[in-house]
Design goal:
By secondary structure, the protein is mainly alpha-helical. It is built from 1 helix and no strands. The radius of gyration is 18 Å and the shape is rod-shaped.
């Protein structure tokens, strides 16, 4: 395996993890903003 492909493989994982964590993070922020608008606690 060449150095280029090994580097690409190693650097691919943080991008995948960031993409996966983006979805629940965005939903959580949406819930926080909605709770503030309605004047109710988040928990």
């Amino acid at each position: 395996m060449s150095v280029f492909f090994l580097t690409l493989y190693v650097l691919m994982w943080p991008v995948i993890v960031a993409g996966v964590l983006h979805v629940p993070g965005r939903a959580f922020i949406k819930e926080i903003l909605e709770a503030r608008r309605e004047g109710r606690p988040l928990i």
